[in-house]
Design a protein that fits this description.
Length: about 100
């Protein structure tokens, strides 16, 4: 998957903040700083999806480690869905509180 990123420097970013924020709604914006470091501006929906995907992948890795180490138990698909839905609800609640601050 190729991700096209709009780029700018910090001076142009500050001068045209609204325009760059609008562009971030279309895709990631990379802001290059004079010290060689950069930041990426994303729309909130993309960030939240990435964070959920990362949490899910971490859970998959943790589960695979448990299988390899023989630490497994039987669960029904309903049990798994309840746990997954609960984790997603807690994540969204926690992040919506941060966004409101």
């Amino acid at each position: 998957m190729e991700v096209l990123i709009n780029g700018t420097n910090i001076t142009e970013f500050r001068a045209q903040l609204k325009e760059w924020m609008d562009k971030a709604q279309e895709g990631p914006v990379r802001v290059n700083r004079p010290n060689g470091k950069a930041v990426v501006l994303l729309d909130a929906e993309t960030y939240e999806k990435m964070a959920l995907d990362l949490a899910e992948l971490r859970g998959v890795v943790k589960g695979l480690r448990a299988v390899v180490e023989g630490r497994t138990m039987k669960y029904s698909s309903e049990d798994v869905k309840k746990v997954s839905d609960g984790a997603e609800a807690r994540f969204k609640a926690r992040h919506s509180k941060k966004a409101a601050v």
